[in-house]
Every structure is written in C-alpha cells, then in structure tokens.
Amino acid sequence: MTTTPPAPGAPAGPAVPAGPVSAALTAAADQLDLLTGLDLAALPSAELLAAVDAAEALHRRLQAVTARILTATETDGMWATTGARSFPAWYRARTGRHHTTAHKNVREARRLRDHLPATADALAAG
Predict the structure, then answer these.
(1) Could you tell me if 61 and 125 are in contact, meaning their C-beta atoms sit under 8 angstroms apart?
(2) How far is the C-alpha of 99 from the C-alpha of 85, rounded, in Å?
(3) CA distance linking residue 17 with residue 4, whole number of Å
(4) 3-class SS at 75?
(5) What dihedral angle (degrees, nearest 10) is formed by the CA atoms of 75, 18, 8, 15?
(6) Rg (CA), the chain
(7) What is the pLDDT of residue 18?
(8) Which residues of the chain have pLDDT under 70?
(9) What InterPro entries does the database record attribute to this sequence (predicted)?
(10) Are residues 23 and 30 in contact, defined by beta-carbon separation less than 8 angstroms?
C-alpha cells in the first residue's frame, strides 16, 4: 500500500493511504516536472503563444479542482480537530499561504460551490 506524504511544511500526521485523487495529483506533478525541464526560450513564437493559452486553461482547471478539494475538506470537518479557529485559518497554517490569500481562496471555493455552479463548470473546463 502506498501512502501520501504531508505537503511541504505541513505538520506531520499519520500516513494516509494513497487514493485516486492522490495518484492523479502525483501524475500531474510528474508531468509538470517534465515541463519545468524544457528550454522554453528555444521554442518558436507560435508554440510559445499556444503554450500561454494552454497554461492558462490548465491554471483555471487546477483552480476548479482546488476549490472542490477545499470545500470537500471543509465539509469533512477533520481539519477542526487540529485546534484551528476556522477553516481559512487551518488552510493558511497547512499551506503557508498569506492569511488574506487563504481567506480569499476559501471564500471563492464556497461561492463556486454554493452560488456559482455554472461558473465552477466553466472554470473546470478551462
């Protein structure tokens, strides 16, 4: 059985069995590793312009996935056992994000889930 290590800087906890989400995120990270090794300056202009569009679409899709992960984590409630005063505070401590950014990310995730499902679908589509 494989396990998922904690995020860098995250508090160590018990090992968690790796599931399909962890496997998919690991595969995505592996693909990003391939991209980071490329000499982008050597690409033709047309390919660079296409890469800007593709990277933006992927960024939007990742935002949608992150929002869904955040709202599912908040609903699960396990975060509350850490002593955090709120979910945004837990998210900030877990990820090292600035408190304003953490609150904004959580607020946006909640809005997408609760009030903007069509926007969430469009974001997920890229």
Answers:
(1) yes
(2) 13
(3) 6
(4) helix
(5) 90
(6) 17
(7) 77
(8) 1-17
(9) DUF222
(10) no
What pLDDT score does 7 carry?
A: 54
Within 8 A by CB and 6+ apart from 73, the residues are 79, 87
d(CA 81, CA 125): 34
In one letter, which amino acid is 78?
M
Residue ranges of the domains in the chain?
44-126
pLDDT per position as a tens digit, 38-50: 999 999 999 999 9
**How many C-alpha atoms does 84 have within 13 Å on its Cβ side?**
17
Residue 111 half-sphere exposure toward CB, CA atoms < 13 A:
8
2 burial (CB, 10 Å; 0-12 / 13-18 / 19+) is: exposed
pTM of the model: 0.80
Q: pLDDT (tens digit, 9 = 90+) per residue, 94-111?
A: 999 999 999 999 999 999
DSSP 7: P
Residue 43 gets which letter from DSSP? S
Looking at residue 75, its amino acid is T
Q: Residue 122: what pLDDT?
A: 95
